[in-house]
Amino acid sequence: MARISEYRNTLLPLIIRKIPRMIEAHLQDMERNITNFQEAIGDIHEYAASLESVYVAVATMLFESEKEYKKCIQQIEEDGYEVGVYFGEVKEMNREVVLQLTHSIRTNSFGYVCDLINQNVPDPETRSLLTSRFVDILNTRFYGYINGFLFAKDKMITHLHNQKISIMGQMAAGMAHEIRNPLCSIKGFQQLMRQMAADRSESMGDFLNYIDICIEEITKVENLVSDFLLLARKNDTQKNRWETINLNELFKKVYHLSAYFVLEGSLDIRLSLPSVNIFVRGIPSYIEQIILNITKNSISAMDLGGVLLVSLSPSADGKQVVLTFADNGVGIPERQLSKIFDPFFTTKEEGTGLGLCICKRLIEEMNGSINVQSKEKEGTVVEIRLPLVTSHK
C-alpha cells in the first residue's frame, strides 16, 4: 500500500487535469447517442460541475489507505444510490438515457485514467492494484446508481398502481350507486304489481303505469352501462367510421334539438356561425353528443333569463376549429373545477357524472382538446378545439 501513496503527488494531479477532457468526451457521446439529451438532463453546466466533483472524489480514493478506501467505497455507493433516486424520481429520466449515461461515464473515464496509470506507474503490481481499484469504484458507483434508479421507478409504479386501484374503486362505487337507484324503483314497483295481480283489486291503468315506470328505470340503467362502456373503451373510435363533417350543418341540427330544452325555462340560446362552412374529421353522432351534452350542462346551470352563446370559428393559425359555449349561469366553484372531468363527479341531483368525462375522451380521440374556465355566480366558458379539415370531398 505504501507504493500506491508514492504516486499520489505525481499521478493524482495528472488525473485531475484530465477530468475536463473526460467530461467533454462524455457530453459529446451523450449528445451523439441520445436525442434531446440536454432537455433530459436539465442544466448542463450544473450536471458537468456535479460530475467533476465526483471524478475528483474518485481520483482521490485511488490513493487512500486500505481502511479509508473501504469507507470511501461505502460512501460512493450511497452517493450513487441517492443520485439514482434523484434521476428516477425527480428528473423522471427514462431507462435508455440512464443506461447510456452510465455506460458513457464508465467507458470514457476508464480509458483516460488507465492510460495515465500505464504511462506513469512502472511497477506492474501497483499498476494492477490501481486499475483494480478504479474498476471497483466505477462498478460500486454504477450499482448504487442503478439500485437507486430502480427503487425510484418501483416506487413510482406502486404509486401509479395505487392511484389506479383508487380510481377503479371510486368508479365502481359510483357505478353501483347509479345502478342501485333505478333497481330499487323497479323492485318496488314489481312488488306492487305482484300484489295488484294477487288481489285483482286495482285498475289495469295503474298496473300499466307501473310497467312504464319500470321500463323507464331499465332504460336509465341501459344508458348508464352504455356510457360506462364508451368511457372504458380505449381508442375504439374506429377511423374507418370517420367521415368529413360539416360543423355548420351539425350545429344547426343540434340548435333545433336544444330548443326543446329551453321551452319551459325562458332561456335564450344564441348561435353564431361563420359564413363559410367549416369541416372536421370524426364520427357525427359523437360530435353531436358532445355538443348536446355541453349545451344541456349550460342550460341546467342558468336561471330564468339566462343566455348561452354558442360560436364556431377557425383558430388564428387556421389549423383548428374552435367551438365555444359561454353561459351566464351559476358557474363552478374553484375547488370543484379540477374535478369536473372525473368519472361520477357531478353537482346535479339527476346527473351521473359521466357526461363531461365521456366528452373529454371522445374529443381527445379525435385529436382535440377541451378547456373549461368558470367563475362562481358569473358563468362558464367551454372551449373545444378540433383539427380543421381544409380540403374535403
What's the gyration radius in Å? 34 Å
Taking the sheet with the most strands, its summary is: 5 strands, mixed
Strand segment tally? 7
Q: Counting H and I runs of at least 4 residues, what is the number of helices?
A: 12
Task: State the gist of this model.
This protein has 393 residues and is α+β, with helices and mostly antiparallel strands.
List the helices and strands and how they pair.
Elements: H1 2-6, H2 8-33, H3 37-41, H4 44-61, H5 66-90, H6 95-120, H7 124-199, H8 204-232, E1 243-246, H9 247-262, E2 268-272, E3 279-282, H10 284-300, E4 307-314, E5 320-327, H11 334-337, H12 355-365, E6 369-375, E7 379-387
Parallel strand pairs: 2-4
Antiparallel strand pairs: 1-3, 4-5, 5-7, 6-7
Helix pairs in contact: 2-4, 2-6, 5-7, 6-7, 7-8, 9-10, 10-12
Notes on the protein architecture:
The protein is α+β, with helices and mostly antiparallel strands and 393 residues long. 66% of the residues lie in helices and 11% in strands. A hairpin with a 5-residue loop joins strand 4 and strand 5. The termini are far apart.
